[in-house]
Amino acid sequence: MSATMDTESTYSGYSHYSGHSKKAHRQGRDRHKSPRSKDGSRSEKSVTIQTPPAEPLLGNDASRTEEGQDDNWGETTTAITGTSEHSISQEDIARISKDLEDSVGLDCKRYLGLTVAAVLGLLVFLTPIAFILLPQILWRDDLEPCGTVCEGLFISVAFKLLILLIGTWALFFRQPKADIPRVFVFRALLLVLIFLFVFSYWLFYGVRILDSKDTNYQGIVQYAVSLVDALLFIHYLAIVLLELRQLQPMFAVKVVRSTDGESRYYSLGHLSIQRAALVVLENYYKDFTVYNPTLLTASKSRAAKHMAGLKVYNVDGPGNNASGQSRAMIAAAARRRDSSHNELYYEEADHERRVKKRRARLVVAVEEAFTHIKRLQAEEQQKAPGEIMDPREAAQAIFPSMARALQKYLRTTRQQQYHSMESILQHLSFCITNNMTPKAFLERYLSPGPTLQYNRDRWFSKQWTLVSEEAVTSGLQDGIVFVLKCLDFSLVVNVKKIPFIKLSEEFIDPKSHKFVLRLQSETSV
């Protein structure tokens, strides 16, 4: 994905970005020709935000080593990228194909369940009304007159059905948050119970009332009232099983992300494995920092560099097998292990120094940019000497002064793929509209935030697969481990039961709090 800036309309007042000479352009292209040729062969999606003229604000060269660049890189250099807006990788193809395969079955299962629940709910609400209306339609002349008590029962049935309708809407008719692999056991049991209950009432009604054409209309109405009362009790049972049972914490689960080891702890009640996995995923999107695969490339490149420095010579001739070479490489790597930790230490120290320096530059640039914006009061708008702008125009006006510092910081911290030009401008205009400080604006960029903070196309995790040795409909137990997999990483969930706590009481008499002062000759008292 590539986001570019309109140099004529947005940044006409910042022409110093375009003051490079042709020689500087030529040198910049020569300097970055090699890294561009390497990245051109990759099929990953890229985000390229450019400042005028054609300088990348947020280059997507995540694997490019920052050690080969000085702190003044980009001040006299122009890099021209040729990234396609419609690039697609093999991972994207696999994700799209998997989503297409799973969407058909999931949609059919979802609509089938909704259809069954809707038909059964309609049958439940029409049954009491049918019990009352059928005698009036079939043998109206033979019915006994309905007295005051019978007419009062009509009001009772009407209000009870209204309460049942509202309660059913609040409990069952919700927009689904996710598609689970198996049916929700308690919900299915309640549907079966309601069906058997209504079927038994219809069976009794058909045998004892319809066949015999009972003339006691008040008794028929009371029979319908008893059905509505029983349905209200079933609704109360549904609230207990679906909502209240899981509120008391019974288990503590530890969730670990497989790639970087980030972990969180959560407390859960009596839930099935699939519903516990759903709760874990809901908390993952708001508690875990966004998954950044570019942070893992540093350790891989460092290990590859160490292994590339090893050379193996076959002194025994071509007859020797490859196992000897493998053992020789392992032994050589073990000998170099003592010195590799020094390289890791200095690399991390140098990276931290660079991050702190560019963070300081970014903070200063943003604070200076915000000083040029002043909110006008209603009475000052008529006599304002300068040009009056809306928040979007103000954001576009002050952004170029902080663009280079923001670019360098995001590239150093490898966050450039999560922030497009449009998202930065929207956030800046939002901060200006709500009179937020520069520190509030920088909060999103100084440290990676939760997954929900970014756009959905940056999540790297939309389709999940639940892997468990136990049945996913079984309840949580102590020691159960299940895994939630997506295309790029997985979440390992370990379940531990909260221990039984024995709390005792000890009474302290308030009158026992008496003290005496001991005076010694050595003290100053």
Automatic annotation (TrEMBL):
<keyword id="KW-0812">Transmembrane</keyword>
<dbReference type="Pfam" id="PF06638">
    <property type="entry name" value="Strabismus"/>
</dbReference>
<feature type="transmembrane region" description="Helical">
    <location>
        <begin position="153"/>
        <end position="172"/>
    </location>
</feature>
<dbReference type="InterPro" id="IPR009539">
    <property type="entry name" value="VANGL"/>
</dbReference>
<keyword id="KW-1133">Transmembrane helix</keyword>
<keyword id="KW-1003">Cell membrane</keyword>
<feature type="compositionally biased region" description="Basic and acidic residues">
    <location>
        <begin position="36"/>
        <end position="45"/>
    </location>
</feature>
<feature type="compositionally biased region" description="Polar residues">
    <location>
        <begin position="1"/>
        <end position="10"/>
    </location>
</feature>
<feature type="region of interest" description="Disordered">
    <location>
        <begin position="1"/>
        <end position="86"/>
    </location>
</feature>
<dbReference type="GO" id="GO:0005886">
    <property type="term" value="C:plasma membrane"/>
</dbReference>
<feature type="transmembrane region" description="Helical">
    <location>
        <begin position="184"/>
        <end position="204"/>
    </location>
</feature>
<keyword id="KW-0472">Membrane</keyword>
<feature type="transmembrane region" description="Helical">
    <location>
        <begin position="111"/>
        <end position="133"/>
    </location>
</feature>
<comment type="similarity">
    <text>Belongs to the Vang family.</text>
</comment>
<feature type="transmembrane region" description="Helical">
    <location>
        <begin position="224"/>
        <end position="244"/>
    </location>
</feature>
<feature type="compositionally biased region" description="Basic residues">
    <location>
        <begin position="19"/>
        <end position="35"/>
    </location>
</feature>
<protein>
    <submittedName>
        <fullName>VANG1 protein</fullName>
    </submittedName>
</protein>
<feature type="compositionally biased region" description="Polar residues">
    <location>
        <begin position="74"/>
        <end position="86"/>
    </location>
</feature>
